[in-house]
Amino acid sequence: MIKTPLCDLLGIEYPIFQGGMAWISDGKLAAAVSSGGGLGIISAMNASAEHLKQEIDIARSLTDKPFGVNIMLMSPFADEVAKLAADEHVAVVTTGAGNPSRYMPMWLEAGVKVVPVVASVGMAKLVTKAGASAVIAEGGESGGHVGDLTTMVLVPQVCDATDLPVLAAGGIGDGRGIAAAFQLGAVGVQVGTRFLVAHECGVHPNYKKKVLKANDISTMVTGKRLGHPVRQIKNQFSKDYLKAEYSTMSDEELEKLGGGALYRAAVEGDEKTGDFLAGQIAGMVNREQPAAEIIKEMFTEAEEVLKTAGRWLS
């Protein structure tokens, strides 16, 4: 069985986080992942503290295992959900789309372990100094908000830049990806896209179908012009948005064009005007399974891969 320092740090069986996906990563999915031995994550997304509290209560009603909350620092509700995470003493807070330093003293005082998502060595160093417990080095292969560097390039550089435990994210969806992450120096992984098709994931069936039908070239990145690129599955919306990016449309109009698109995909299943965020690994996701089965299968595969890691040595 694979066990790393991350397991002892957080009290989990397998060194895996479920990614915080807006309108997708709710209390039910987080509880299923945590009960399956990983660390489930509830997405605070762009919602209020009241909404997050409801999801935390749901997770606590379904599992006695630790789980976390993901806070998008661009959210207009970031201040209030950050305070709620401290008040609720959640086990872990992961952060994305910004620098979490302003909230970290509050979280640390509440006993919350802070594990920021970073897309650069500079940010990894910054959050290390601020008191993070670990970092998630996320490559541009991932779904949703992405950086420029790939996972293979980013992870070893982050591992060299910090003494904290490093989780690898972006392009990981099976045991081979987990084994590769360990070889790059990580002690855990974060997985999002594969959990989209977990039985306990309440995303619209049309979303799951798009992930299951995806191939190796089914995703694309938009949003670079506005400074917050995202990766999604190609559809009419993403193609229209990309075209608009290179038009004379104003930034304000472009921002408005993307408003509500993820909700339309995840909740309403609108295949034409919805934005179906997913990572490049979607091409390798081909069946629905319970979350616990996904975790166990991936780590069983990883063990077998690692056993043969030295087969080319002589």
CATH H-level superfamily of the largest domain: Aldolase class I
Compute the CA-based radius of gyration.
Answer: 18 Å
CATH class of the largest domain: Alpha Beta
Q: Mean pLDDT, nearest integer? A: 95
Q: What is the third-level CATH name, the topology of the largest domain?
A: TIM Barrel
Q: How many individual domains?
A: 2
Alpha-carbon distance between the two ends? 27 Å
Number of helices: 13
Order of helices and strands: HEHEHEHEHEHEEHEHEHEEHHHH
**Biggest β-sheet description:** 8 strands, parallel
Tell me the layout of helices and strands:
Blueprint: H1 5-10, E1 16-18, H2 27-35, E2 40-43, H3 49-62, E3 67-72, H4 78-87, E4 92-96, H5 104-109, E5 113-118, H6 121-130, E6 135-138, E7 144-145, H7 151-161, E8 166-169, H8 175-183, E9 188-191, H9 205-213, E10 219-222, E11 230-233, H10 236-245, H11 251-258, H12 261-266, H13 291-307
